[in-house]
Each structure stands twice: as C-alpha cells, then as structure tokens.
C-alpha cells in the first residue's frame, strides 16, 4: 500500500476548485430558473375554507369549557349534524388526492416543472463530471477513516489499496451536491436555499387529504365532554378579591 | 397582538426619534412589523427619509417598501397629494404590479370616489377571490360610507371562508353592538372567546352584551364572565367590578330571594364593592362619595 500519494497541484487548480465553483453556479442558476418557472398558484377556495374550518373546530374543542353549555351544543350541532353539518363530508364526494392530481393538469404540470428543474441540471452535471473528471483522486481529508467510507469517498475508483481518506472527483461532486446548502442560504437568503434532500422529502410528503382530517375533527368533537369552567371562576374571583382586600 | 416588550420597545424608539436621536428607519420598520397605526409619525419621519436623497438611496430596494408605507399613512392623514406622489412613483417602478393597483384603489377610496374604488376592488377579487386584504378593504369602505348593513354583509361573506380570523369576528361583534343586535354580537364574542380563551377583554365584552340582553339566565352567565375577568386580570378591572355589583342586584330583583346561591353571590358582591372602594380611595378620592351612593342604591334595591 502506498504510504503517501502525492497529489499534483494541477489537480487542485483544474479539478477540485472548478468542480466546486461549477456546483455553486449551477445551484444559483437553478434557483433563478425555478423562480422564473414557478407559476403563481391560486389556492382553491374550498381548500382554504376547509383549513380555516379545521382551525375553528379545533378552537371549539380546545376552549369548549369557556362558553356556556347552550352555545357549545349549538355549535357542535352546527359542525356535526348528519344532514348539513360543516364537518360532514358526503360519502362519494371525498376526492382522492391522487385522482385529483391526475384530473388537474395544472397540478401535474407544476410537479413536472419542479422535477425538471431538479433532474435535468443534475443529470447534466453528473454526465459532465463523469466525462471530464472521472478517475481523479481530487483531495485528501486530513484524518483517517474506516473502510466503510470507501463507497462514499472513492466513488469511481475501483482500487481497494488506496487509503480511504483520499476523495475521488466523483465523490467530491456528490459531497458538493448535498453539502452546499449552507452556502446557498448565505448567497440566496435564508428560505431560498434549494436543497435537494429537502425537495425529496417534500415529494414523499405529497398527498394530504383534507376530507380525512375533517372526519377526524368531527370524531374528536363528538366525544368532547362539555364541562363549563365558568362557575369555578366565581370562587376564584372571590379568592382574588379577598387577597386584594387584605 | 402587540406584546408588552414590543410596545415598550416601540415607545422607546418613538421617544428617541421624536427627540431627534435618529433611528427613524428602525422605528418605521418596527411600526410596519407590529402593524400599529401611527400614521402621523410615519408620514413625518418617512417623508423626511424619502426627501433626503442620500438616506433614501442607502435603503436600496427597501425604498419601495417605505414608499408604500408612507403612502398608506398619508391616506390615513388625508395628505392626498403626498399619497398620490408616492403611488405615482411606485407605479413608475412597478408598472404591472397588483400591489400598486391596490394602493391606487385605496387612493380612490381615500378621495371618496367610492364607486370607482368599488369597481377596482371587485376586478381584483375576480382575479384572485381569496385576497383577504381586499375583502377587508371592502368592509372598511362600507363602514366609511355609513353603510353598516353592507359592512355586515361583506364581513359575513368574508367569514364564511376565513372563519378562523378573530379580528374579523371582533369587528363584526362591534358592528352588531353598535346596531343593538346583541344576540348576534354575543355569538361573535363567543367565537372570540373560543379562539383566544385567555384574553379578558373578550370575556368582558361578552359579559356586557349578556347583561344588556337581560333575563335571569343571561344575568347569571354575565356575572360568571365578570368573575372570570376579575380572575384573569387579578381584580384590576374596574368595569368588571361594577359589572358584578350590577348583575348581583339585577339578579336579586328578578329572583326575589328564591335563589339558593344568594348568600354566596352576595359575598362576591360585597368583596367587589370593597375592592372598588379601595381602588377609588387610592386613585380618585374626590369621587368616592359618588361611588358610595351608587353602591348603596344597588344594595337597597337588592
């Protein structure tokens, strides 16, 4: 095993630094492109209304004990009666979000735009890196690592004898791809940092179903036991005033 | 809502700016962030920044935010010429902007050209039916024209969609009270209590409405809410203390001693009365005699 590989300074100047710079520039470029392509989405009135309704029903559940029993019962009936309560979703009407996604071309279009702005530059840069910089040992990290890290740091070099602390150019590309988030948040502002990992999380979290949460809210409202808190307040007020009078 | 620390910070900054200590921009930013209404001050200091070329250019793109803020403040102070200039400059900078369009509509509204403003707002709503600000402007416009029933109608329409907006509920409640529609107002105050159960002001207003409605049950409920205000404020709310006294005497009149809880409630009343007396002694000794006669008359009637 070679004790020390000597890395040519030309590798630093022509591989390591250009790769990082290009990654940063692509990130910035992608941010502006996605900003251009982002269609101004007008939220659907029904969805907004359902969201507000859920907040209001939740408020009712949380603070039920602060209003008189009669008012509470009236409200519960308003939300929960079987005929036209606000929280009742008629059976066949509950829309499957998946189906909704396909029926609404705008939504699919939006998704596609998002995906395109993510995938195309990524494949292009990956191909570019593969073509020009494959097989370089680009850097050495200043501490030793175990064999497990070989696949992470030496992607593209199939040598088991090279010490793990050497980083191949393709791995350097991956490290940049996932690790530049902090830099982007500095350049583009806090919330603009486009992080691929985050985007992937968003994709998987797709498919929130408002009708389901309406049903859940209805069930939990059904089982609320109303216990008016106000009669207790009279005694507490007495105590407060007695304290004050002293 | 503005918290106490923010308010003290705001007042400190305002004081500093008033006395020429600088920090006008920070003050304006804070006013904008807290959404408080200090239009005269904003107009004065905002204009002084905008008229100073060096200060203005040092703001960079924030300059336009300031133009918007000053324009709205100027409309509030009826300095329509200033507002017009600001909006014109903004229009020049952003020829396509809807936000500037909104300002133009507000300018029309400030001038009193209601019909034109209404037309502008409804065209905005057609484009984006979920624009909360424009819905609210419409309510405000109806109110400014003295058309309370119109304001109620718009507010109800707004609340049908944005039913978790407690500020709108409060506005609606106040309008109902001004029209003496107490039952509707009571509903709105219940809604407010639900969304902010620990704000004593809502409890107090609800109790007031219930007391005004009258009837044994409502009076008893009102008294409970006055009691909760006392508990929440630590007995510092004079209106609630008076409310307890009034409610107890009114209940006494209606129930004529049939009530079992009489003794208990009388104790609360006497406690509230002593608290009131103590408070008056401390803060307005010359009005103490008025208070004692008032309380006496309440007690005699019970």
From TrEMBL, chain A:
It comes from the Eukaryota. GO terms for biological process: protein folding in endoplasmic reticulum. PANTHER family: ER MEMBRANE PROTEIN COMPLEX SUBUNIT 3. GO terms for cellular component: EMC complex. It is a multi-pass membrane protein. Belongs to the EMC3 family. Its main location: membrane. The keyword Transmembrane applies. SMART domains: DUF106. Keywords: Membrane, Transmembrane, Transmembrane helix. It is found in: Membrane. The chain crosses the membrane at residues 14-33, 119-143. The keyword Transmembrane helix applies. This is ER membrane protein complex subunit 3.
From TrEMBL, chain B:
It is found in: Endoplasmic reticulum membrane. Keywords: Endoplasmic reticulum, Membrane, Repeat, TPR repeat. InterPro entries: EMC2-like, TPR-like_helical_dom_sf, TPR_EMC2. The keyword Membrane applies. Its main location: endoplasmic reticulum. Signal peptide: none annotated. It is a peripheral membrane protein. GO terms for cellular component: EMC complex. It holds the Pfam family TPR_EMC2. Gene3D superfamilies: Tetratricopeptide repeat domain. Residues 100-209 form the EMC2 TPR-like domain. Belongs to the EMC2 family. Component of the ER membrane protein complex (EMC). Part of the endoplasmic reticulum membrane protein complex (EMC) that enables the energy-independent insertion into endoplasmic reticulum membranes of newly synthesized membrane proteins. This is ER membrane protein complex subunit 2. It comes from Malus domestica.
């Amino acid at each position: 095993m070679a004790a020390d590989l000597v890395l040519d300074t030309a590798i630093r100047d022509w591989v390591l630094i250009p790769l990082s710079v290009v990654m940063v520039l692509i990130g910035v470029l992608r941010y502006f492109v996605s900003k251009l392509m982002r269609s101004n989405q007008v939220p659907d009135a029904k969805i907004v209304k359902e969201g507000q309704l859920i907040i209001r029903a939740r408020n009712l559940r949380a603070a039920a004990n602060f209003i008189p029993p009669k008012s509470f019962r009236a409200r519960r009936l308003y939300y929960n009666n079987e005929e036209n309560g606000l929280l009742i979703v008629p059976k066949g009407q509950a829309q499957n979000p998946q189906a909704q996604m396909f029926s609404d071309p705008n939504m699919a279009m939006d998704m596609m735009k998002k995906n395109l702005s993510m995938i195309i530059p990524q494949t292009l840069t990956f191909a570019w890196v593969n073509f020009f910089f494959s097989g370089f040992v680009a850097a050495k990290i200043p501490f030793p690592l175990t064999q497990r890290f070989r696949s992470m740091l030496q992607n593209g070099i199939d040598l088991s004898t090279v010490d793990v602390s050497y980083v191949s150019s393709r791995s350097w590309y991956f490290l940049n791809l996932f690790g530049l988030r902090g830099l982007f948040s500095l350049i583009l502002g806090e919330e603009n940092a486009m992080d691929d990992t985050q985007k992937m999380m968003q994709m998987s979290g797709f498919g929130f179903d408002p009708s389901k949460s309406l049903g859940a809210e209805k069930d939990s409202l059904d089982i609320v036991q109303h216990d008016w808190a106000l009669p207790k307040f009279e005694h507490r007020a007495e105590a407060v005033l007695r304290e004050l009078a002293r | 809502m503005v918290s106490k620390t923010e308010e003290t910070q705001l007042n400190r900054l305002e004081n500093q700016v008033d006395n020429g200590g600088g920090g006008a921009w920070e003050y304006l930013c804070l006013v904008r962030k807290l959404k408080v209404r200090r239009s005269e001050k904003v107009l004065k200091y905002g204009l002084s920044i905008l008229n100073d070329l060096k200060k203005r250019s040092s703001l960079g793109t924030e300059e336009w935010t300031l133009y918007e803020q000053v324009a709205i403040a100027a409309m509030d102070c009826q300095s329509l010429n200033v507002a017009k200039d600001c909006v014109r400059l903004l229009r020049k900078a952003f020829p396509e902007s809807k936000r500037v369009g909104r300002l133009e509509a507000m300018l029309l509204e400030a001038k009193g050209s209601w019909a034109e403003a209404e037309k502008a707002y409804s065209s905005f709503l057609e484009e984006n039916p979920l624009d909360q600000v424009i819905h609210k402007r419409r309510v405000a416009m109806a109110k400014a024209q003295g058309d309370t029933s119109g304001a109620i109608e718009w507010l109800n329409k707004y609340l049908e969609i944005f039913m978790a907006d407690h500020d709108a509920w409060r506005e609606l409640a106040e309008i109902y009270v001004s029209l003496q529609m107490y039952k509707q107002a009571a509903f709105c105050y219940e809604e407010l209590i639900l969304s902010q159960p620990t704000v004593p002001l809502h409890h107090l207003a609800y109790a007031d409405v219930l007391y005004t409605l009258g009837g044994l049950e409502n009076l008893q409920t009102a008294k409970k809410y006055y009691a909760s205000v006392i508990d929440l404020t630590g007995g510092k709310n004079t209106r609630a203390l008076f409310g307890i006294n009034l409610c107890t005497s009114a209940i006494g009149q209606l129930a004529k001693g049939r009530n079992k809880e009489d003794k208990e409630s009388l104790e609360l009343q006497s406690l509230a009365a002593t608290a009131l007396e103590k408070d008056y002694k401390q803060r307005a000794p010359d009005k103490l005699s008025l208070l004692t006669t008032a309380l006496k008359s309440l007690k005699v009637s019970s």
